[in-house]
Amino acid sequence: MTLRVSPAEIVARSSDPLVGIHDSWSRVELGRVAEILNGFAFKSSHFNKDGVGLPLIRIRDVGKSNTETHYSGEYDSRYIVAPGSLIIGMDGDFRVSRWGGPPALLNQRVCKLTVREGCSYDERFLLHVLPGYLKAVHEATSSVTVKHLSSRTVEKFPLPLPPLSEQRRIVEAIEEQFSRLDAAEGLLGSGQNRLQALRSKVLGLAAAGRLGLAAARTDFAPDDEWIPPDWRWTTVRDLALEEHPVLTGPFGTSLSRKDFAKSGVPVLTIGCLTDGGVRLDKAEYVSQEKATELSRYRVRGGDVLFSRMATVGRAGVVTKDHDGALINYHLMRLRLDSHVILPDFFLIYVRGASRVRRYLREVGHGATRPGVNTEQLLTMPVALPPLDQQRLVVDEVDRQLSEISATSRTVSLCFERSKVLRVVVFREAFAGRLVPQDFSNEPTSDFLEKVRL
Asked: Measured between alpha carbons, how far is 54 from 103 in angstroms, rounded to an integer?
C-alpha cells in the first residue's frame, strides 16, 4: 500500500459524511480509544474443513457469521475472537464488521479492535464511524495488486469525539432509522420476487394458450399437455426456414482470445441474452478482417439465438440493430420460417413452456455437463397456434411485461433512494443534527484529556 499523506490529511480531503464532525466536537486518534491486535500467521498445514479445532477467521470471513476453515494446531489465547468483537479486513476493500460466529482464531491480515475501558467511547458508535475512514483511506491508496492496510494507519484515524451520552443517543437514532429502512427494503425485496414470479406466470400462460385467447381453458393444470383446439404440436425442424437452420458458433482456433479487440464487429455471447432482449453489454469484438473470415457466423434480424448450455430462457431474437454481428461457440443460431412462426412467439414459448423445461431436463439427463446439441434443438416440441393468434399473444405479453418492467424499475429506484437515505442519516448524525445537542454534557475536551492519560 502506498500512502502519500497521513490519515488525518486523507480524512480532511474526503467528502464522505462519516468523516465529518460537528463544530463542537473534538477528535481523538483511534489508537487512544481502542487496542488493535493484528492476526497471527497460523500454519496452513493445520487448516481443515472438517470442524477440527477452533474456527479460523480469514480475511474472506469479515462480514460473515461463520467460516469454513478450522485450525487444529497450537495457538496463543490472545488471538481468540469473542462473538460480537469488531474486526477489520486489512486487504482489499478494508471491510469492518462484528464477528457473528462462535469464538474463533484471528488469522493474519485481519485485526481485532477492543475499546479501552474508561475511555468514554461507545463501541457501537465506533462501528458506525469506521467505514467512512476505511473508505477514505482506500480511495487515497494505490497498489499494483491488492491494497494493504497497516495497523499503524488504523491507529492514526482521527475519530470524532462527542460526549459519551451523545454518542449513545446518536447510535440509537441511527439504528432506529436503519431499522425502518431495513423493513422497507425487505418489502421491496419481496415485491421484486413477486414481480419475477408474475413475469414467469405471464410467459407460462402465454406458452400454454391461456393468455388473451377466447378459446383458453379455465380448468388448467400447469403440467398437462392441453393446448387450444386450433393449436398443433410440431417440432423446431418443421418450423425451419432452410435445410440447415441451426448453426453453432466457431470453436477452437477459428476464434480464440487473441482475436478479440476493444472495438470492431461484436461477437455475441451467452451474457448478451437477457430478459430485455439481445444486448451488447457482454459482447466481445473482432476486427473487420476477422469478421469477414467468419462471415458464415453472422446473424441477421429475426434470427433466434439459443444457449448451448440448456439454460431455460437463455434465448433471444436478433433485431436489425444487430445485423452482421457474430456468435461465439456457446450459442446456436436458429432460422425459422416467419410465415409459419413468429420469432418473438417462439421466444415466448421457449421461456414459458413447462414442456420445454421437461424436454431439456430429459435430453440433458446423465450428461457430465448439461447442454443441448443441434439435433436436440431441432427435435424440441413446440405448440404452434395460427399466425393471427401468435400476434395476439406477442402483443399481450409485450403489454404485460412492459407493465411489470415499469414497476420493477420503480422498485429499483426505491432501493437507490434507500441507499441515499442511509448516507443522509450518517451525514446528519455526524453533523450533530440527528439528535438534539445537550449542552449540559461534559465538554469533549475533558473526555479528550481522559484518553490522553
From this structure: 7
- CATH 3.90.220.20 intervals, the chain: 7-160, 232-384
According to CATH, the topology of domain 7-160 is Adenine-n6-DNA-methyltransferase TaqI; Chain A, domain 2 (3.90.220)
Q: Report the distance separating Cα 156 and Cα 216, nearest Å.
A: 71
Q: Residues 202, 397: contact at Cβ < 8 Å?
A: yes
Q: What is the mean pLDDT of each run of 10 residues along the chain (453 residues)?
A: 64 64 83 95 95 95 93 96 95 92 95 92 93 85 74 89 91 95 96 95 92 54 70 94 90 88 94 90 93 94 87 83 93 94 96 90 68 89 95 95 95 95 89 75 56 51
| Radius of gyration of the chain measured on its C-alpha atoms | 30
What are the beta bridge partners of residue 34? Answer: 115
Alpha helices in 140-163 (DSSP H): 151-155
Q: What is the pLDDT of residue 216?
A: 47
304 secondary structure, DSSP code? E
Residue with cell 477528535: 27
C-alpha angle 212-216-219 in degrees, rounded to nearest 5: 130
Query: Which residues, in sequence order, are bridge partners of residue 40?
Result: 107
Specify the CATH number of the domain 232-384. Answer: 3.90.220.20
| Residue 313 CB neighbour total at 10 angstroms | 16
Q: Phi, psi at residue 268, to the nearest 5°?
A: -75, 140
Q: Locate cell 468514554: which residue?
A: 120
Q: Which residues pair with 89 in a beta bridge?
A: 110
Strand 381-384 and strand 232-235: the pairing is antiparallel
The conformation of residue 99, written as its DSSP 8-state character, comes to: -
C-alpha cell belonging to residue 183: 423493513
Q: Are 328 and 319 in contact (CB under 8 A)?
A: no
